[in-house]
């Protein structure tokens, strides 16, 4: 993401499109950045549908502001600047996206949505999709930051921008950016669960053998109606949340299982399951399909996203995913 030296081929071509008013060429050159910009907006907003909307807003703003592109900065940098400020404008207007009170557990964000891995940028080495910074725990922790601290942290620590570049994008002083980053890092460390690895440390994008094994066992337990088998997969200090319903965060495997049982899990009407393995946010996930009496098909009901630690499920985040075709899951089996 360096901006030094003469304009590269993309920037020169883009600058020519800007000067000629070639909307079609403009669209082609900006479109190639859609996926990484959408991930950026998702980190800022924690909601896939909002990220889609703000990415489109970024392209609209870019077209309307095309005369401000002089070729001095990389096209990618220019687009990230627009996207960041579009997200900040959105957060300034949407009061339901303000930081969550610190006394609430990190997973309780009714607007949190999973991010389908199929929509991530294709380059596995791209820093914007590093697993540690797309997993739910990180995305949720970032939401505890005030919007501009959030922007600073993402630009500096995720994208790796130097302080002057981030300051220019946000129209802040370098001192303000440095101070905001220090405060953001402290808050982030407080919000991330203590057992998590350093979110900036390198790690593979692929699921581990433990993750694959636990996911398979989780799905098998559902399909067999095996409550004991399901319980055995959970850490005692399990953190469970069911979104978008507020007030559903439960800490402790016993309390979580008691809640599932009282809700009728594995009783008639909730005892005929089929599961499909998938990944979201570079995490193992199970799409849960339920067939109710009299229905010939299994209907998509929930998505269970697992964080596996020491061979057991440490965090289980459930999402109501009915009517969300962007996840790429069949609505029925």
Protein described:
- The protein is an alpha+beta fold.
- The chain has two domains: 9-191, no CATH class; 209-327, Nuclear Transport Factor 2, Chain: A (Roll).
- Helix content is 44%, strand content 14%.
- The protein has twelve helices and six strands.
- The chain has helices spanning 9-20, 23-31, 34-45, 48-64, 75-93, 136-142, 147-158, 163-170, 174-191, 209-224, 227-232, 253-262; strands at residues 234-243, 250-251, 273-280, 283-290, 299-309, 312-320.
- A hairpin with an 8-residue loop joins strand 4 and strand 5 (299-309).
- It is elongated.
- The chain starts with 8 loop residues before the first helix and ends in a 13-residue tail after the last strand.
Brief summary:
This protein has 333 residues and is of the alpha+beta class.
Layout of strands and helices, then pairs:
Elements: H1 9-20, H2 23-31, H3 34-45, H4 48-64, H5 75-93, H6 136-142, H7 147-158, H8 163-170, H9 174-191, H10 209-224, H11 227-232, E1 234-243, E2 250-251, H12 253-262, E3 273-280, E4 283-290, E5 299-309, E6 312-320
Parallel strand pairs: 1-6
Antiparallel strand pairs: 1-2, 3-4, 4-5, 5-6
Helix pairs in contact: 1-2, 3-4, 3-5, 4-5, 7-8, 7-9, 8-9
Domain RNA polymerase sigma factor 70 region 4 type: 138-188
Subunit structure: Interacts transiently with the RNA polymerase catalytic core formed by RpoA, RpoB, RpoC and RpoZ (2 alpha, 1 beta, 1 beta' and 1 omega subunit) to form the RNA polymerase holoenzyme that can initiate transcription.
GO molecular function, one term: DNA-directed RNA polymerase activity
């Amino acid at each position: 993401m360096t901006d030094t030296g003469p304009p590269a081929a993309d920037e020169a071509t883009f600058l020519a499109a800007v000067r000629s008013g070639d909307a079609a060429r403009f669209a082609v050159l900006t479109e190639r950045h859609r996926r990484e910009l959408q991930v950026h907006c998702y980190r800022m907003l924690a909601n896939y549908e909002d990220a889609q909307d703000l990415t489109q807003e970024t392209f609209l703003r870019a077209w309307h502001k095309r005369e401000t592109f002089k070729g001095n900065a990389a096209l990618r940098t220019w687009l990230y600047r627009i996207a960041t400020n579009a997200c900040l404008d959105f957060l300034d207007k949407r009061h339901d996206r303000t930081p969550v009170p610190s006394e609430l557990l990190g997973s309780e964000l009714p607007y949190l949505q999973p991010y389908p891995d199929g929509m991530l940028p294709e380059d596995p080495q791209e820093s914007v999709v590093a697993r540690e910074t797309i997993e739910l725990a990180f995305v949720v922790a970032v939401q505890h930051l005030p919007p501009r601290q959030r922007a600073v942290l993402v630009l500096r620590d995720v994208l790796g921008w130097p302080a002057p570049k981030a300051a220019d994008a946000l129209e802040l002083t370098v001192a303000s950016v440095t101070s905001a980053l220090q405060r953001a890092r402290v808050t982030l460390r407080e919000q991330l669960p203590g057992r998590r690895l350093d979110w900036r440390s390198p790690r593979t994008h692929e699921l581990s053998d433990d993750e694959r094994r636990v996911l398979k066992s989780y799905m098998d337990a559902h399909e067999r109606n095996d409550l004991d088998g399901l319980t055995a997969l959970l850490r005692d200090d399990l953190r469970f949340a069911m979104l978008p319903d507020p007030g559903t965060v439960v800490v402790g495997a016993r309390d979580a299982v008691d809640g599932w049982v009282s809700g009728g899990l594995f009783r008639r009407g909730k005892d005929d399951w089929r599961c499909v393995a998938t990944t979201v946010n570079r995490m193992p996930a199970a799409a849960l399909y339920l067939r109710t009496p009299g229905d010939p098909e299994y209907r998509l009901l929930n998505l269970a996203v697992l964080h596996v630690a020491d061979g057991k499920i440490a965090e289980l985040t459930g999402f109501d995913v009915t009517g969300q075709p962007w996840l790429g899951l069949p609505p029925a089996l």
